[in-house]
Amino acid sequence: MNESGLSPLPREARPYQGRRAGVVSRLVAAVIDSVVVAIALVIGYAVVAGLLFMLDPRTFSFPDTNVLLSLAAAFIVTVLYLTVAWSISGRSYGNLVMGLRVVNFRGHRLRVAGALIRALACAAFPIGLLWAAVSPANRSAQDLLLRTSVVYDWTPSGHDVPSEVPPADAPGAGED
Amino acid sequence: MATSPVMGFAADVAVGAATLSFEVLASIADRAAPILGPVTRTALRPAGLPAALQPAHWLDAVARRGFLQRRAAAHEVGRLLDALVPVVLDEVLRRADLTALVLSYVDLDGVVGAVDLDAAVSRVDLDAAVSRVDLDAVAGRLDVDAVAGRLDLDEVLDRLDLTELVLQRVDLDLLVREVLNHLDLTMVTALATEVIDAVNLPEIIRESTGSMASETVMGARMQGIAADETVARIRDRLLLRRGHGPDAPPPPLTGRPVDDRSS
């Protein structure tokens, strides 16, 4: 909603703007983000393989893909991807598709440090997202820990949506 | 001037006696006329006497002289009357109340009835008469409200081409400017918002931009919200929370005090 009272959003979606998103939307966004990370890993693996092939084509063989290394690479890529996405626009690609935005306890975009910590928490304990299904305020374990929220925000910039995330000193700000 | 009854009586007797004498003489003359006529003629023109010596000739000369004298006297009297009558009449009229006399003795209705007023009016220069009238003073005495009350305004308006009048006589630019100056801008904004809502401008913008906010993405997001709602309802039912009926408003996803107490 802008100053003139006009909104580019469909009428049926307007009541939800700024409210905390439910677990389904967030799960779908997380799945999309996982696919993005997987594609990035595959591309990264292909790039590494291509470099190795270019360095020594005769002895070339595909690099080992042991589980530990793969998990470490996935963890790092996920953390980097989410940190950059949340600190720059407040939303990853999955969030963009589902119309979500990650905000801090003031309703503002996360800083780099906050985004990094939240990305680490999400990558290390992804199942914490499911707490949003139990939490009456739709907050995941990471949200509770870091006082962040994921809200519906269909606007491109996020500046025009009146966030209903309460400020830090408001009653109920740290529920659950 | 007062006269005594005796004097009046004497005058009446004198007049009566004179009248009686005159009547007696006239009667005698009438009776004697057949006899006296030939005698008189013979006496005035005796036969055998020259005409110059006849009494009739003398009488004619006397009569001619008398005629001339009478004519001179009449001329003198007329001259005297011309001089005296205006003076006398002026004095008389100055002393008499002519208006009262006219009102007493003249039948004004009869006089007016005998006048051809239409012919008289046709000879009047009405324009000149109207130009001498102070119309402002006349209009000031008019009860305009009463006159307007008798007007059939609908009839008058039916005969007017108001659209043409407004287009010709009204400064529409000035009018619109004044209207805009007096308008409540918040009301205009609300009206514009309503209009834009009615034409579904967001839909037009979405169609024209073709960005991420395409129909598919919108559908996915709305389905996500609907699924979130369903999950929230199930959760609330399991947690024995209230307020999530099928027609209930969107759930308070933010940390409301109610949510906090119940969680």
CA radius of gyration of chain B is: 61 Å
Percentage of residues assigned to helices of chain B = over 70%
What's the oligomerization state?
heterodimer
Compute the CA-based radius of gyration of chain A. Answer: 19 Å
Shape of chain B: rod-shaped
Helix and strand run of chain B: HHHHHHHHHHHHHHH
- Give the terminus-to-terminus CA distance of chain B: 138 Å
Please summarize the sheet with the most strands of chain A. 2 strands, antiparallel
Largest interface: A-B, 45 and 44 residues
User: End-to-end span of chain A in angstroms?
Assistant: 30 Å
Q: Using DSSP, what is the number of strands of chain A?
A: 2
> What does the average pLDDT of chain B come to?
81
In terms of per-residue confidence, which ranges of chain A show pLDDT below 50 for 5 or more consecutive residues? Answer: 167-176
Description:
- The complex is a heterodimer of chains A (176) and B (263).
- Chain A is mainly α.
- Mean pLDDT of chain A is 85; it is low at 167-176.
- Chain A contains six helices and two strands.
- Chain A is elongated and about 65 Å long.
- In chain A, α2 packs antiparallel against α4 (112-124).
- Chain A has a two-stranded antiparallel sheet with strand order 1-2.
- By secondary structure, chain B is an all-alpha fold.
- Chain B has helices spanning 5-44, 55-95, 98-105, 108-114, 117-122, 126-131, 135-140, 144-149, 153-159, 162-169, 172-182, 185-199, 201-209, 215-238, 257-262.
- Chain B is rod-shaped, with a radius of gyration of 61 Å.
